[in-house]
Structures are given as structure tokens and as C-alpha cells.
Amino acid sequence: MFAKLVAVSLLTLASGQLLAAECKVDVDSTDQMTFNTKAIQISKSCKTFTVNLSHSGKLPKNVMGHNWVLSKDADAQPIATDGLSAGIDKNHLKEGDARVIAYTKIIGGGEKDSVTFDVSKLAAGEQYAFFCSFPGHISMMKGTVTLVD
After folding, report:
1. Environment class of residue 93 by beta-carbon count within 10 Å: exposed (0-12), middle (13-18) or buried (19+)?
2. DSSP structural state of residue 7
3. CB-count exposure of residue 23 (10 Å: 0-12, 13-18, 19+)
């Protein structure tokens, strides 16, 4: 009985740690206009989710800068288009754009940034996308975000 109780306790503890580990993702971006992932799954059990963006390239942000932006899939291209004129100082995002759920700042080679957002902003069954809003990058630098059980 005691051994069974210990085993169940350890299993519960391990699964709790596993769920905590799933509430973040590391995403790398490169000078070749790529992200190292095309799909991110977020567990509904996460209260918040953190994206750690790094840029493993060498080029400065004004030449090959990248950010990570989360929105509904249908809003991604309009957000990127509207952000073209916003400039690098505003991360190529229109100020106060309510369609943007979360974003990092634009970073250059060797730099990092993170964003943590409230998972309750995501709805089950909705299609979400992540992308880079640097002008022209969305064509190659995009992926899906899915809310999972």
C-alpha cells in the first residue's frame, strides 16, 4: 500500500513538472529568414506561456531583424501589412493593434528577447499563427499555434 502511494505521488509530481515544462518554447531565428519551428502547441493547462526568441545569425536588426508575433491566423498578413510603415523602433507593428495577442521586440544577430502571455487569450478551435513582422519576412517566417488538451 505504502509503495503504491509513493509511486502515485511520484507520478503526480513528475506529471506536474512535465506540464510546467510545456508552458514555454525556445524559438531560434536566422540570417536565412527562418524560424527553427513551424508549429507550437500550447497546453490548456498552462496559465501563461513564454516564448524565448533568439537570433543565431550575425546580421544587425536593421538588416535582418526578427521578432515573434502571435495573432489569429486570419489577422497575420493584415498585421504585417499595417506594420510596414510603423518602423523598426515600433517593431514593425501598428501601435495599439488589438489583433496582436503577443510579440517580442525585433532583435538582431546574437540577441534574445522573450514574451509571456496569458493563455486564456486563446480560444479552443481558433486558428492562430506566429510570424515575423519585419518587412517581407512573413512569407517565410511563419507557423501555427494550437491550443491542446
Report:
1. buried
2. H
3. middle
CB count within 10 Å of CB 133 equals 30
pLDDT, one tens digit per residue, over 95-113 is 999 999 999 999 999 999 9
Query: In terms of Cα–Cα distance, which of 133, 121, 149, 146 is closest to 53?
Result: 133
Q: Locate 141 and state its grid cell.
A: 517566417
Query: How many other C-beta atoms can be found within 10 angstroms of the C-beta atom of residue 38?
Result: 11
Distance, in Å, from the CA atom of 138 to the CA atom of 148, rounded to the nearest integer, reads 25
> pLDDT tens-digit profile of 110-133?
999 999 999 999 999 999 999 999
* Cell matching residue 62: 536593421
At 24, list the grid cell. 514555454
Closest CA to 57 of 29, 36, 84, 83: 29
Distances (CA, A) of 11 to 4, 8, 20, 24, 43: 10, 5, 14, 22, 19
H or E stretch including 64?
Answer: helix 61-64
CA distance 132 to 118: 20
For 54-84, the pLDDT digits (tens) are 999 999 999 999 999 999 999 999 999 999 9
